[in-house]
Amino acid sequence: MADFEAHGKTYKNSFVTYENFYQNHEDAEVREKSFRSFSEGLRKHQNTAAAAYLAQVKSEKLLADMKGYDSVFDYLLAEQEVDRVMFDRQIDLIMKDFAPVAQRYLKHVAKVNGLEKMTFADWKLDLDSALNPEVTIDDAYDLVMKSVEPLGQEYCQEVARYQEERWVDFAANSGKDSGGYAADPYRVHPYVLMSWTGRLSDVYTLIHEIGHSGQFIFSDNHQSYFNAHMSTYYVEAPSTFNELLLSDYLENQSNDPRQKRFALAHRLTDTYFHNFITHLLEAAFQRKVYTLIEEGETFGASKLNSIMKEVLTDFWGDAIEIDDDATLTWMRQAHYYMGLYSYTYSAGLVISTAGYLHLKHSETGAEDWLNLLKSGGSKTPLESAMIIGADISTDKPLRDTIQFLSDTVDQIISYSAELGE
């Protein structure tokens, strides 16, 4: 990525610095200039990226045909142990029913921050940028330990080992992938990779990856090698559940409406917006791409840009101005080379939300959640979700999650009213 200049100062740009720092920077010029620089860097490679993606989906379609599946969708969903109905429902309900909730929140963010319009460079802007403290790695571990306390000693003693035994690589080195990753050698301790920039969002990344790798520990210890890995459909549940624990801890540390609003806003932006929007819109995009391939058509960069613009516009309506740079968003994820993985972030988050609410309202909530983690891949997604009382064969858990988010936005707006904003 090329350097960019804002307020007479030159800034280095990369995937890591843009996604971890600049995209929610409090300064509008830094957000805008970094986004344009980032998009310019992506655009130079759009044709190569499109050709590589076309080769990927064509190979998946070929395998689906060779193995006798009715469609590439059926082939890719088979290993997740779910059907097309559950896949389509996840995308359709969120696009229809959660979109108005997300639009309402972003319009509120624009109002609080004095923005006449919100562009795609602004949509990750924090509601209260002035209240985004710097966090050290030691502070982060302390927050993580306090957040997971409701799960009890068995879970906490495993989490403590991440700091004690240095299982996490934090260095934001040049060329390092953005985001967070966890590796799981069977019955060996996990490894976590992330890039530390000292923001609260990094704490969410850390506790997210500890959620993944913590599940590895519990399933490895209670299942054979062949049953250790849970279905991809809800593999993001343990990670996002931990994020909800972090937001819950932050919310309950103060009676100050500004602090409570801060915690709820991060619940939305760091957990749900990433999983219920970013990855869900990728899934809606993927569905259109695979449908093209099913119909015997092909695509290039311009077609992918057009599809992404259609998806973004359908979801955001008039809440965000969608321009040509925004359409390059399809180039920002490696998930397209992992089959129908993107939608599972929201699917997992529905299960983790059900688990979180079960923890808050049931004496057996913690025990039930640990039993879900320990089950690994020994049960189907439907069977595992029933451990915490969630019947994902119906749309109720998803609708309950959307209602939970709508209530969260109502609370945020109420706190803003108390603050006169």
Question: What features would you describe in this structure?
Answer:
The protein is mainly alpha-helical and 421 residues long. The chain folds into 2 domains: 1-44, no CATH class; 50-421, Neurolysin, domain 3 (Orthogonal Bundle). 60% of the residues lie in helices and 3% in strands. The chain has 15 helices and 5 strands. The strands form 2 sheets. It has a 3-stranded mixed β-sheet with strand order 3-5-4, with helices on one face. Strands 1-2 form a two-stranded antiparallel ribbon. Strand 4 and strand 5 (191-193) form a beta hairpin. The model has no long low-confidence stretch (mean pLDDT 94).
Keywords, separated by commas or semicolons:
2 domains, three-stranded mixed sheet, 421 residues, globular, EC 3.4.24.15, two-stranded antiparallel sheet, mainly alpha
Describe the protein's topology.
Layout (H helix, E strand, L loop, with lengths): L3 E3 L2 E3 L3 H6 L7 H16 L2 H21 L5 H7 L5 H29 L24 H11 L5 H12 L3 E2 L11 E3 L7 E3 L6 H23 L14 H15 L5 H38 L6 H16 L27 H18 L3 H11 L5 H6 L9 H23 L3
Parallel strand pairs: 3-5
Antiparallel strand pairs: 1-2, 4-5
Helix pairs in contact: 3-4, 5-10, 5-15, 6-8, 6-9, 8-9, 8-13, 9-10, 9-12, 10-11, 10-12, 10-15, 12-13, 12-15
For this entry, what is the oligomeric state of its chains?
single chain
| Unreliably modeled segments | none
Question: So, CATH architecture of the largest domain?
Answer: Orthogonal Bundle
What count of domains describes the coordinates?
2
Number of helices: 15
Count of strand segments: 5
Q: Please provide the ordered H/E string of secondary-structure elements.
A: EEHHHHHHHEEEHHHHHHHH
Major sheet: order of its strands? 3-5-4
Q: Tell me the CATH topology of the largest domain.
A: Neurolysin, domain 3
Largest sheet: 3 strands, mixed
In the CATH hierarchy, what is the class of the largest domain? Mainly Alpha
**Arithmetic mean pLDDT:** 94
Q: Please state the overall shape, judged from the principal axes of the Cα atoms.
A: globular
* DSSP helix fraction: 55-70%
Look at the structure and name the CATH superfamily of the largest domain. Answer: Oligoendopeptidase f, C-terminal domain
How far apart are the first and last residues' alpha carbons, in Å?
37 Å
Share of residues in strands: under 5%
> How big is the Rg?
21 Å
- Give the class from helix and strand content and strand pairing: mainly alpha
